[in-house]
Amino acid sequence: MTSEIDPFRPPTDEEITSAETRLGVMFHPDYRAFLKGGGDVGNAVFDPAVVLPGSGYCDLFEIAQYAWENAGVPRDLVPFIEDNGDYFCISPSGEVSYWSHNGATSERWPSLSNWFQQVCVERR
């Protein structure tokens, strides 16, 4: 019996470090923890990006590449959720920002946990 690869399992530390190297960025410790926790966004209507192969439209590398090259998202922001051409991004300092298909917005959260509480829990 062959085991199937599960792209939606929590990644290992080594897989996360490999993703950082491939993207040329350092993930904030909160984002590393988010990835290791399986990227749970509760009952939110969007899917978080995944660093493991075979994740289809949730592939972090494809999302980031497109956002950086075509949507104007700065390279220091990691777009960890894509939603119809809009992005939730995390900065090196751990601040989360919303990047609209029209460009930068003023929507910001001081941390991933604040973002999660306000966007994934309270906006349901």
TrEMBL record:
Boundaries of each Knr4/Smi1-like domain copy? 10-118
Q: Which domain of life is it from?
A: Bacteria
InterPro entries in the cross-refs? Knr4/Smi1-like_dom, Knr4/Smi1-like_sf
Q: What Pfam families is this protein classified in?
A: SUKH_5
Matching entries from SMART domains are given as: SMI1_KNR4
From which residue to which does any coiled coil extend?
none
> Mind telling me what this protein is named?
SMI1/KNR4 family protein
Q: From what organism does this protein derive?
A: Massilia suwonensis
